[in-house]
Design a protein that fits this description.
single chain; alpha/beta; Dna Ligase, domain 1; Nucleotidyltransferase, domain 5; 6-stranded mixed sheet; 5-stranded mixed sheet; 12 helices; 19 strands; globular; binds adenosine-5'-triphosphate; binds magnesium ion
């Protein structure tokens, strides 16, 4: 008997809302894409709901398109969450082990992660996810899965991703109104990493850089797990805004210029090349220099990569990640971005396309679908548990315990 089941992701971005329907099978990584619904994202800005009715209407359109294409009714979705209001913290938890023989049980892992959650967050923040980075038992450090081991003191180093309570509540309200249940709300950087990074890269050390519309999300992996993540409040829409100001044209015209003629490499463009805006715009009719366009674009992307590099410096990983940087998100589709990133970050750089998919691949074979496809992988791999320990203890310890589920607030 087939053990196939349907899984659905809903990536609510600042520029697009993407619903993807996939078929998955137990013990198989491959996801069969059977439907996609993509609608413009009015009512959402930088991950925040700005107009609840408009947001509901656009989410509904995206869901209905995906239902039509897949022939599957959508009841439950894994939802992507990102934007400058997403915040990250590092935390530690310590507990004493007092069970018989001092053997560490699942409940102890529960307790130590609860202790790590007792970090003092600013008001009105909600923990979206707590990721155990490593455990220590007595003086033994670097333990990935402590259950079954013995000791009297269990410590955890954890990474916490939190969002503004009101932003999460408004998102949940929109989803409730569209009639779908939320399986999980998953931070974008974690979802993307599921789609574009492989196990080896995460083991060696890699930084994932998702340059989206309203923000750039980064996640650093080492020894198979998340070392650090953060959100830089600059993305593709800032590039478009710079062009609108620099070229003195409408935002819509600037967006078309960026997508049709944009590049990050002004040195490759001759001074004589020009763009006649009347060819792409109803409102603007002047002629602009292609080199000027590239210079404006390069400056903003360079700023983004410099900020990423600064973050890497802050965590002592500047130039220290053997698997380099992997770029995804809609804004990495601009020509020359890999070269610019390589120069700015001084790391090997590659584009990240969604992996392990089949079916309607041509609809989603694009770095801007990393988040939506990653949500499917995330849902398939972890279900609605909070286990984000990326190593194969499923294989070692058999089926996963449900205890992490309790960690979701
Ligand atoms: N070919 C292209 N060249 C340059 N930029 C592009 C290209 N195609 C799309 N973009 C930019 O990508 C951005 C959208 O990326 P993406 O779809 O990842 O964002 P989003 O998920 O809608 O937003 P967010 O995640 O920030 O809420 C826009 O700023 C758009 O201008
Ligand atoms: Mg996005």
């Amino acid at each position: 008997m087939s053990n196939q089941k349907t899984i659905v992701s809903l990536d609510i971005g600042s520029s697009k809302i993407r619903t993807i329907v996939g078929l998955v099978e137990d013990k198989k990584n491959l996801i069969n894409i059977i439907g996609a619904g993509i609608s413009p994202s009015g009512g959402i800005r930088k991950g925040l709901v700005t107009d609840i009715d408009e947001a509901i209407s656009n989410i509904t359109t995206s869901l209905e398109d995906a239902e039509r294409m897949s022939g599957e009714p959508i009841h439950r979705v894994f939802v992507g969450f990102s934007g400058p209001h997403v915040e990250t913290y590092n935390s530690k938890g310590v507990i004493a082990i007092n069970g018989s023989g001092s053997e560490i049980r699942e409940e102890d892992v529960d307790r130590v992660l609860d202790a790590a959650k007792a970090v003092s967050l600013p008001a009105n923040r909600e923990i979206l996810r707590i990721i155990p980075k490593s455990f220590s038992i007595d003086s033994q450090h670097g333990i990935k899965y402590p259950v079954g081991m013995s000791g009297i003191r269990l410590e955890v180093e954890a990474h916490i991703i939190a969002g503004h309570t009101s932003a999460i509540k408004n998102l949940e309200k929109c989803l409730y109104e569209t009639g779908v249940d939320t399986e999980e709300i998953v931070p974008s950087s974690l979802a993307c990493s599921e789609a574009v990074l492989d196990k080896k890269q995460k083991e060696l050390g890699v930084v994932l850089i998702e340059i989206a519309s309203g923000s750039t999300n980064i996640a650093v992996f080492e020894e198979g797990t998340v070392l650090y993540s953060s959100v830089i409040p600059i993305g593709g829409e800032h590039v478009t805004n710079d062009l609108a100001i620099g070229l003195r044209c409408a935002i819509d015209t600037a967006e078309k210029v960026k997508i049709e003629y944009g590049t990050c490499l002004p040195k490759d463009i001759s001074d004589r090349e020009e763009i006649d805006l009347s060819q792409i715009s109803k409102t603007d009719a002047h002629v602009v220099s292609k080199k000027q366009v590239a210079t404006i674009i390069e400056a903003r992307y360079h700023e983004i990569f410099s900020m990423v590099r600064e973050e890497l410096m802050n965590i002592g990983r500047d130039g220290m990640l053997p698997a380099g940087a992997v770029l995804c998100g809609g804004s990495v589709k601009i020509p020359g971005v890999v070269d610019l990133a390589r120069d700015s970050l001084q790391l090997p750089v590659q584009l990240g396309f969604p992996r392990d998919i089949e079916g309607l691949v041509d609809r989603v074979d694009d770095p801007s679908f990393a988040n939506a496809i990653g949500l499917l992988h995330f849902g398939h791999r972890y279900g609605t548990t909070n286990n984000f320990l990326d190593f194969d203890f499923k294989k070692i310890f058999g089926s996963l315990p449900k205890f992490f589920k309790k960690l979701i607030p």
